[in-house]
Design a protein that fits this description.
Helices cover 71% and strands 0% of the residues. By secondary structure, the chain is mainly alpha-helical. Helix 4 packs across helix 8 and helix 9 crosses helix 10. It is globular, with a radius of gyration of 24 Å.
Length: 291
């Protein structure tokens, strides 16, 4: 098909703009990745270098020589996985229930849910509730308070509404209960939206640190992002990562190398997950947004 001159010009402009966006996103990632393998003096003296003699694994060695980041990494995996399971389970059940035609008062329930997207009790009342429930300094303080996500419920509800009603009606004629219909018919057809919600929930929890900073007192329970925050913002590099005999200037150089290495380690799970979730992500977002 031959495109008109104006169409070709528009396509060219789109390609140029998209290429610029890709470069804006990709260049900082490449810089951090390369800087994590370079000697600190090389970065300060001449920036990035592709010479093999300038490369080192010292930053990663120092990180793994101390258990703080490793422990934080394991904690983040546990928190993110638990949060994802609970959130996805609750949201797809709520979304399926709200997608049924015979639910009494579902419009009022949806209005109630939507109000909570714009208004909440605030930090202090939420903290008091978590404290009174005995969840302070526990895993549940990270998983439970934000487990219900109204946006996830709306996405799931819209997706379930797109499933043909004839499938559920045929199952009811055969004597299947509502739970069995969900388990045997709706659930197997819902992989795209489940994977989308799982990806959103995991990424959101993996990048979160504020709740952990508020509710957790024991440093043994700190997630990776809170440990990383201490390194990047507060400049609190753990003594086990650097020798006590280093001078202050050398300490600063090593700290910079550890920062880059920490960022790479924190990004690894997301970079590994996304290629496997991509096909479900695209399909689920499109289907869940049709209405």
């Amino acid at each position: 098909m031959n495109n008109a001159r104006s169409d070709r010009m528009l396509l060219l402009i789109n390609k140029v703009l998209l290429s610029m966006v890709v470069m804006i996103v990709l260049l900082p990632l490449l810089y951090v990745l390369l800087a994590s393998f370079l000697e600190p003096n090389v970065i300060l003296r001449k920036g990035l270098s592709l010479q093999a003699s300038d490369w080192t694994l010292e930053g990663y060695k120092r990180i793994f020589s101390d258990g703080t980041i490793v422990r934080g990494f394991i904690n983040s995996i546990l928190y993110s996985t638990g949060f994802t399971i609970v959130t996805v389970l609750v949201c797809i059940l709520a979304g399926y229930t709200l997608s049924t035609d015979d639910l009494v008062g579902k419009k009022a329930i949806m209005v109630f849910f939507i109000i909570t997207m714009f208004f909440n009790g605030g930090l202090i009342p939420t903290y008091l509730v978590v404290r009174d429930l005995g969840m302070l300094n526990t895993v549940w303080a990270i998983i439970i308070p934000n487990a219900i996500n109204v946006w996830f419920i709306i996405l799931a509800r819209t997706y379930f509404k797109a499933i043909p009603k004839e499938l559920k009606e045929a199952a009811r004629i055969d004597g299947a209960s509502e739970f069995k219909i969900f388990l045997k018919i709706v659930f197997p057809l819902s992989k795209p939206i489940i994977f989308v919600l799982a990806l959103y929930a995991f990424i959101g929890q993996w990048n979160a640190y504020f709740d952990a900073m508020i509710y957790l007192e024991d440093r043994e329970l700190y997630p990776l992002q809170l440990v990383l925050r201490s390194i990047l913002i507060q400049n609190e590099v753990q003594p086990g990562m650097i020798g006590d005999q280093l001078a202050r200037a050398e300490l600063q150089k090593i700290s910079e190398m550890i920062k880059y290495s920490s960022i790479v380690i924190a990004s690894l799970p997301l970079m590994i997950m996304y290629p496997f979730f991509q096909k479900y992500f695209e399909k689920g977002v499109m289907v869940g947004s049709l209405k």
